[in-house]
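Sample entry follows:

:::
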Amino acid sequence: METSNNSDLIKGYKDFLTEGKTERECTLFLIKEAQKNGYKDINEVTELKAGDKVYVNKWGKAIALFNIGSESLEKGLNILGAHIDSPRLDVKQNPLMEKDFLVYLNTHYYGGIKKYQWVTLPLAIHGVVCKKDGSVINVNIGENADDPVFVISDILPHLAQKQMKETAAEFIPGESLDLILGSEIPPEKAEENADKEKKEKSEKNKAKKNILKILNEKYGIEEADFGSAELEIVPAGSPRDLGFDRSLILAYGQDDRSCAYASARALFESQAKKRTNVCLCVDKEEIGSVGATGMESHFFENAVSEVIARRGDYSELTLRRCLNNSYMLSSDVNAAFDPQNADLFDKDNASFLNGGIVFNKYTGSRGKYSASDASPEFIAKLRKVLDDAKVKYQMAELGKVDQGGGGTIAYLAAKYGMYVLDAGVAVLSMHAPWEITAKEDMVQATNAYKAFLCIED
């Protein structure tokens, strides 16, 4: 049974998943929660002292939150680092098209997906449309009960003989992941002596024009505005309890929003002592952590510089010492052991649902390529901290060595010389439109992150 405190944690997590289906929405949610907990935008602050709480926001798509400790920042930070982007479909810049009386929205998939999993699902459109006059239209269509939803159609089994012979990677081409937006009644066939060419010209793109009219009347969007839009296609619907015992959560985007929420929650429920505590939530991890809002950028380094400057002792050397002396948990998920596909896992080195937070010493693939290999001294320190706090944890790899692999932001933090270890929640059906986690693991991960933030040396 969940205690009242754990029930509150799970409810908060579900609210986060419901309201945060894009990195922009996640950042906005975290800013609101941060402000409730006494955090201020760093641009409103000129000086920082022990106990102060600030956040740095990058384009509304990445955020770093700092709870200032009493000792010099040169001593290092305790960092919980997660990512808030998830696999999805992105809308192209010239997306609207009509084909034989159906209107489609053309997409480009983002991150590692199985394309066939995205057909015939109710889908929603989230994001922003930026107008030339500087205004921004927030888009969220498909989540409310009276909203329309959208879908990618598939071939009926009666006509799918050719499709069924193709590989899973091929039978749904990326260019076929187009959403149905609307339809039009086909015109009656022209009579024998009618001007057929004139009739066809008058009917051309009639359905598309109707959709554009609706978009303009209801949302103020014109077709050219798609060129300066950032629209994401995600599964429609809210998180649900899974199983008769309600022990599991079924939801979109749990990689890596489960760890992002647990990290932020741990920060909000903690108070920095000597070392400064940090929660870092970045973008673009699913496509290599690139861009201005990804971990490969200078966003975090710049954010730390702003904090050091407001502590009154900025120098390049102070920044380098601060990062070098930091501890970080790369708060990212791990593949949960799947009994239906047990041959893909080394069971002795696998993570299990309800097994607690997962420590992954190294990610990468096959011969540890692109891995961040954590220090055993750091792992030993964490084991003691978690054992003392009576937090349940497990140590695992992603799967069998030759089956593949994956990466996190850990190696990008490790380049500063800091101690880094991947530590997160086990996920079943990772990268699917609907992923599975265990409530118990959310509780243990949050408690683990809180215990980590208490490290003082």
